[in-house]
Amino acid sequence: MTITEFLNARLHEEQQWAIHLERNARNYLRAENLREVRGRARQTTVAWDPYAEFAQRVYRSVTGQLRILEEHPQTRGWDGDGVDNPICETCARDDRDGGQDGDPYPCTTLRLLALPYADHPHYQQEWAP
Ligand SMILES: [Zn+2]
Fold first, then answer.
1. pLDDT tens across 75-109, in order?
2. Which residues contact 122 (CB under 8 A, 6 or more apart)?
3. The pTM of the whole model exceeds 0.90
4. Same domain (yes/no): 53, 83
5. Distance 111 CA to ligand 1 centre (A)
6. Do 50 and 7 share a domain, yes or no?
7. Where are the beta strands (DSSP E) in the chain?
8. Which Pfam families does the record cross-reference, listed alphabetically (predicted)?
9. Å from CA of 119 to ligand 1 middle
């Protein structure tokens, strides 16, 4: 499994969790509002739900991370060890010969994106930043 496949899987799982969390938070909020309306005055109705707001923030954060992942595709170039090795297209620098130089793939950006999932069974220790 490549780091790109790993990150795509983890981030899409997290997006699904955020959607699920927001849906549950909204259902809980509706249930609480009904209880409040039946039991007390209408003005005690809960209008703000921090759980749903947090879930939306997680969703947007993960969507941004997926965009970052897309922005760091693999290409070939000099990685300090060989002229046709995998390097990051975005992080690579143009060299004097018209080629590209870069650190071995994955770049630090992708390694940092994967770091929160270091305890996942499919995380590979060589991805550690
Ligand atoms: Zn990169």
1. 999 999 998 999 999 999 998 888 899 999 999 99
2. 1, 6, 9
3. no
4. no
5. 9
6. yes
7. 74-77, 85-88, 93-94, 100-101
8. DUF6221
9. 23
